[in-house]
Structures are given as structure tokens and as C-alpha cells.
Amino acid sequence: MVDLERMLDLATPWCLRVAATLRIPEHIAAGHAGLTDLAAVAGCDADALHAVLGHLVSQGVFTEESPGRFACNQAAEQLASVPFLDLDGIGGRMAHTWGTLLDYVRTGQPAYQQVFGRPFWEDLAAHPRIGAEFDALMGPAGHGVPDFDIELSDGWDRVRTVVDVGGGTGAMLASLLRRHRHARGILVDLPGTVARAGEIIESSGVGGRMTVEGQSFFDPLPAGADLYLLKSVLNDWPDEPTVAILQRCGEAAHPTAAIAILGGVSADEAPRSLGIDMLVAGGKTSTLTQFTELARRAGLDVIAARTQSSGRFVVECRPRAVTG
Q1: CA distances from 18 to 9, 12, 136 (A)
Q2: Do residues 25 and 79 touch, judged by C-beta distance below 8 A?
Q3: Do residues 12 and 75 lie in contact, with contact meaning Cβ atoms separated by under 8 Å?
């Protein structure tokens, strides 16, 4: 039976985030177990903190060994190691954005700017620390994992140059270049992001074959490559910007180049789901049928679409041949 009361609980997730933001597990581990001392070192009100910790104790996180004296149990120790819970960082941006869900459902448009004063991408640019946390949040999970590979319809033998469009700090591209040693790569992302790619490039041993271009992917892209990659990019944008990004890829690609999309497109029969990318930036995951029309508007033809052995759904496009 579904426990709706437990599903509707808002106190616990917020109390957990507050405790993580105030570094309560670390302070207790450092010897600040008494409530007055703990509140002082955490910089907060003792009574309010007591209420938060009392709730978490009731949920099995922390223990209250004696009135007003707290200790970490296994759950509290784990809390200290969970990333992106800090309400002052990207985790806070994501958490507060869920409060705009009603506006999003009513309008189909993100209400992020109403909460933070700027649209999502402008907000990250205005707050470099939070922008860097977003890159870390995407990290290997968003932009590539060790030995990352993509199965191309025509294989990799003819691919000499790869452009990773919106590729973050280069984890995916570096992994692909390690696997396909005849290829070179160009990483395209905003200047502040690619500036943090140096360590990944050098540690991957692909420094001689990988260059970076700090720019928007709404601007003209490096031309003449054999493969343009869009991973975890299109899911961040609604239809019109998606068409614009695809157009830029098509303009830069030579006639037989491939444009591979990972993320932002799903098989027609795949169940619909709700993601934070929809709320923060109005992102959308299109069905294959919907995407085929967007690609057509961008001057591209879909040449392949399938779930690969990795479990990823990958769509390949090619610039439409000019006839007449």
C-alpha cells in the first residue's frame, strides 16, 4: 500500500538539508555535542536548531544522548558525505526550484527567475561558485564516465574530429579520445566552464589531441568536424532553442558528418517523467516523433535512433542533402 503521508512529508527533506548546510555532523564530530555550543559554532538559533534536530532524531538521523546533547549515528555520518545538499549552493537552487512546480505546470514555462532574479543560465554565470558546483553536479554523471563510448551507425573509423557541444569540463570527450586514438576533439562550452577542463584533459593523457573553445553553442561552432555530440544539452532547452542548437550543428558539419544526441530525446513508447531541468530552464525531453520534426526544422534528417548496449537512447542526424 502507498503511504501517502510519508510521501507528502516536507519536514524531513528540508531538515536534512538544513543540517547539512549548517555542517551539523562535522561540528558534532569535532566535539560540539551540546546544543548551546553546537548552535554557536553553527551560527544559528539554539531553540530552532533543537527543533530541527529533534525531528531528525525521530526519523532515525542523529541521536539525543541526553536532553540537548546530540551524537551522530550512521545515518548522520552518511549525511555529511552526501553532495549538493548545501542550501547556499546549487543544491539549494534545485531544492527551492521545486516550489515553482505549480507555476510550471500552469504555464509550461520555468518560474526560476521569479525566485532567483535571473534565468537559470544567467544566474549561474552571475555566481561562479554555484556555476562550478553545477559543473561538478553534472560531472562524470552528466558529461561522461570512464570508458564512455557511443555506438555510431557508420562506426568510428572515419571520425577524425569530434566536437563535444556543451561538453562541460570534458570528461566525456576525453574518455572518447582515449578509446578512439586516431581522433582529435574540440570541447565547446562557456568560457568559465572550459577554463576548468585543464586537469581532466591532462590527467586523461589526451592533451595533444583535445582543444577547447570557450563560447556559447548558440554562436557558430567549429566547422568541418566528422561528429558533433550533444549529451545532456537538449534536455535543458524548450523547442525553439533546441532548433537553434541543432541548426548551429548542421551549419558547422560537413555533408556526411553525424550529429549524435544523448539526452533530450526518448523513444515514443518511453514513459513520461519530470526532471529538475524542466523547472529550472524549461527543458524538455521530446519523443522521437517530436524530435524528428524539430530536426527537420533545423535542416537535419534523423538517420538512426536506438537504445544502445549501454542502455542509452542515442539519435543520429545528418545535414539534409540539398537537391536541385
Answers
A1: 15, 10, 21
A2: yes
A3: no
Q: How far is CA 231 from CA 61, 80, 239, 295, in A?
A: 37, 31, 16, 16
**Distances from the Cα of 211 to the Cαs of 172, 186, 191, 200, 278, in angstroms?**
14, 5, 13, 12, 31
Rg (CA), the chain: 23
Task: Dump pLDDT digits (tens) for 134-185.
Answer: 888 876 655 555 557 899 999 999 999 999 999 988 989 999 999 999 999 9
Q: How far is CA 316 from the centre of its chain?
A: 22
Q: Stretch 184-190: mean pLDDT, rounded?
A: 96
Quote the longest CA-to-CA distance of the chain.
Answer: 85
Task: Confirm if 186 and 162 have CB atoms less than 8 A apart.
Answer: yes
* Residues 22-58 pLDDT 10s: 999 999 999 999 999 999 999 999 999 999 999 999 9
pLDDT digits (tens, 9 = 90+) for 111-130: 999 999 999 999 998 999 99
